[in-house]
Design brief:
There is one protein chain. By secondary structure, the chain is α/β, with parallel strands linked by helices. The chain contains 6 helices and 13 strands. About 25% of the residues lie in helices and about 30% in strands. The protein has a 7-stranded mixed β-sheet, with helices on one face. Strands 1-2-3-4-5-6 form a 6-stranded mixed β-sheet. Strand 9 and strand 10 form a beta hairpin. The longest helix is centred in the last third of the chain and has 13 residues.
């Protein structure tokens, strides 16, 4: 059984704890991370947007736990160093390569966003986790028979298209157009899940879209 805690998901901040020692994304205040700080071993970062990369929290984690590893794509390494993470604690991960960390293996997967971004396949001793948010597509990514899928399902196609039409008719700015370009619809998410899940898999929708330019998480 994979244990996890979604500390926050959406435009206000993203952070997920898995098995108490892995933190994926760090876009929340330090106080939300603090209950896990003594057990934390690795922080996996996806991209530079502030709801996934909160500099003050990352700096505090590095100061409080100097042995914690920070793993990310090549594009984030300079930003981690800039906020005070020692370069010796930064692991640069290349997409589609498996990295061993003892208690788990990690495989980054490339995602489609408006900045460089990756998701993660995590192979623990007791199960496998797939994590992906802030992507327009999961095309070409395979994660068959994983135990837990944590995947963005940002909006319903018909609903968001209707909102765009209404705002355009009213002469209003439709930020939803950018949502379409940079985020995954529930329909795309479900199609991908059905192609990869086993009957015993668990899934969690992340980064769900609301009427405002905010996101909420809905678990299933």
């Amino acid at each position: 059984m994979i244990s996890y805690n979604i500390l926050s998901t959406g435009s206000k901040g993203n952070a997920v704890i898995i098995h108490d020692f892995v933190l994926i994304d760090c876009g929340v205040p330090y106080r939300m991370i603090q209950p896990y700080i003594s057990q934390l071993k690795i922080v996996l970062l996806t991209h530079i947007h502030s709801d996934h990369f909160r500099a003050s929290t990352i700096r505090r984690i590095s100061a409080e736990r100097p042995k914690v590893r920070f793993a990310c794509g090549r594009w984030l390494a300079p930003d981690l160093a800039k906020v005070g993470v020692p370069t010796s604690n930064i692991d640069i991960l290349e997409p589609s390569v498996m990295y061993g960390y003892g208690l788990l293996n990690i495989i980054p997967v490339p995602l489609v966003h408006n900045v460089p971004n990756i998701g993660y396949k995590l192979h623990f001793r007791d199960g496998k986790v797939f994590y992906a948010t802030d992507t327009n597509s999961l095309n070409g990514i395979r994660a068959h028979n994983y135990d837990l899928y944590m995947v963005e399902a940002n909006y319903e196609d018909e609903v968001i298209q209707q909102k765009i039409s209404e705002k355009k008719a009213a002469g209003e700015y439709a930020y939803e157009v950018q949502v379409l370009k940079n985020h995954l619809s529930k329909q795309k998410c479900d199609d991908w899940l059905y192609a990869n899940m086993s009957p015993h898999s668990e899934y969690v929708y992340l980064h769900c879209h609301e009427d405002k330019p905010e996101d909420v998480c809905e678990e299933n």
